[in-house]
């Protein structure tokens, strides 16, 4: 990792999060090159000791790994601008949502000879604080060593799992990609419910967030199934049972699953839209 040369195409929040995890002790700042049209963004990277440029240039040819961290609507243009500098040693990692790995491989190569040394990732916003959950998928040109390297880089901002297909990343999008918003919504509802019962907003927020964090940690550290953990909290005829009865009556699980289906369908539609 100390000898690794990285190029970030796009120097925004996700790139900054990845670099923050890597610069601690893995990759020297001098080995990182950032391409971003914003002078302010470039200045922030320069302050960290990284090299920068406003557009793709020959320095890309010397980078071991390219990390595309641009918004999906800009990925096609970014790929086209970088394509002249790609070579067989280049490992490409994309964290752009909604663009399939196959589409990016065609943009980096062409229809008859796509560039397949590509890893597509679907991170989520907690990666910004090093607590991300990322799904990863590799195209056919990615070696076992490439996969190991890509995983090392992505684990700098949280946990990572490999999936078996590009399409499976749509399910990752519906789960962990969009999932933080589901949790935020649930927390909002808990806080509003608590304030309606007489707690202050500050009291409600403190208890709600601690409850969510604690429950997640307990679930992660326990050998018991989630259903068993839930049953341990639920005494027959008690307060939790009364609350869960409302959830079941309103078909809470079905609502969550329908929402995830909608997110999955939208992810597929966006992939088609961006690749057209």
How are the SSEs ordered, and which strands pair?
Elements lengths: L5 E4 L3 H11 L8 E4 L3 H9 L3 E3 L11 E4 L3 H11 L8 E4 L6 H8 L9 E5 L9 E7 L5 H11 L3 E5 L5 H10 L1 H18 L4 H21 L4 H8 L5 H11 L2 H24 L1
Parallel strand pairs: 1-2, 1-4, 2-3, 4-5, 5-6, 7-8
Antiparallel strand pairs: 6-7
Explain this structure to me?
By secondary structure, the chain is of the alpha/beta class. The chain folds into two domains: 6-169, 3-Layer(aba) Sandwich (Rossmann fold); 179-271, ProC C-terminal domain-like (ProC C-terminal domain-like fold, Orthogonal Bundle), CATH 1.10.3730. The chain has eleven helices and eight strands. It has helices at 13-23, 39-47, 72-82, 101-108, 144-154, 168-177, 179-196, 201-221, 226-233, 239-249, 252-275, and strands at residues 6-9, 32-35, 51-53, 65-68, 91-94, 118-122, 132-138, 158-162. Strands 3-2-1-4-5-6-7-8 form an eight-stranded mixed β-sheet, with helices on both faces. α6 packs across α11 and α7 (179-196) crosses α8. The radius of gyration is 22 Å and the shape is elongated.
Looking at the overall shape, the CATH architecture of the largest domain is 3-Layer(aba) Sandwich
Oligomer type: single chain
- Helix content estimate: 40-55%
CATH class of the largest domain: Alpha Beta
């Amino acid at each position: 990792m100390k000898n690794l040369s990285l190029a970030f195409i796009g120097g925004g929040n996700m790139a900054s999060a990845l670099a923050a995890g890597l610069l601690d002790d893995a990759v020297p700042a001098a080995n990182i090159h950032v391409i971003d049209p914003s002078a302010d963004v470039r200045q922030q990277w320069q302050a960290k000791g990284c090299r920068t440029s406003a557009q793709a240039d020959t320095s890309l040819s010397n980078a071991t790994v390219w990390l595309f961290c641009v918004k999906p609507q800009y990925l096609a243009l970014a790929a086209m601008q970088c394509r002249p500098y790609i070579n067989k040693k280049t490992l490409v990692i994309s964290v752009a949502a909604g663009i399939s790995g196959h589409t990016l491989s065609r943009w980096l190569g062409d229809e008859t000879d796509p560039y397949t040394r590509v890893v597509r990732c679907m991170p989520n916003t907690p990666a910004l604080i090093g607590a991300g959950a990322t799904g990863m998928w590799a195209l056919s040109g990615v070696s076992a060593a490439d996969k190991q390297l890509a995983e090392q880089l992505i684990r700098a901002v949280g946990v990572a799992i490999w999936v078996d297909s590009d399409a499976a990343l749509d399910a990752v999008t519906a789960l962990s990609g969009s999932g933080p918003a589901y949790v935020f919504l649930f927390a909002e509802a808990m806080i509003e419910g608590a304030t309606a019962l007489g707690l202050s907003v500050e009291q409600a927020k403190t208890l709600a967030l601690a409850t969510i964090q604690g429950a997640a940690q307990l679930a992660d550290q326990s050998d018991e199934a989630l259903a068993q953990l839930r049953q341990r909290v639920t005494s027959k005829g008690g307060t939790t049972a009364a609350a869960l009865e409302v959830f079941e009556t309103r078909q809470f699980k079905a609502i969550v699953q329908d929402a995830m289906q909608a997110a999955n369908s939208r992810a597929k539609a966006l992939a088609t839209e961006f690749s057209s």
